[in-house]
Every structure is written in C-alpha cells, then in structure tokens.
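User: Okay, second chain of the day. Same drill as before: sequence in, structure tokens out.
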Amino acid sequence: MSAIYTIEHHSSRRNTIRVHFLDEGWAQVNDYNHWIQETIDEMVLWCDQHKCGERTAYDMFRFASKKELTMFLLRWDK
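Assistant: Same drill. Structure tokens below.
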C-alpha cells in the first residue's frame, strides 16, 4: 500500500512543512479519516519523544532548525 500523504515545504514559512493527505481513490475507504488522525498522532508523538519540531496546525509542523526538519523528513517522508 502506498502512503496516504505527501510532505510539502511551506512556501512562505521557513522550516515548516505541510502534510498533504491524498483524496483521490482514498475517499471511498471507510477508515481513511481514522488513518489520517492516526498518522498525525504518530508524527506528533515522534516529535515529542525526539524534541524535534511541533505541530502548529492540523496539517503543519514547524521546526527550530534545518537539522530538525531533516530528521523529521528522514523519518516520515516516503
């Protein structure tokens, strides 16, 4: 199964990314919204455990440095 999200760099905020969840084809799956929330929760937990970044909006994460951003991308960017 392919990832249900992609990660995009925010165009105007430095060291910020947006987790974009795919709609096409996935919207028919009953557990899609649950998967989204579960994925975001895992990302937030990972950030807390590693003191690396913070969630700033439903689908956005901000990082203190490029190093933190890179660590997050190495873990979550598929």
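The chain has one domain: 5-76.

User: Thanks, on to the next one.
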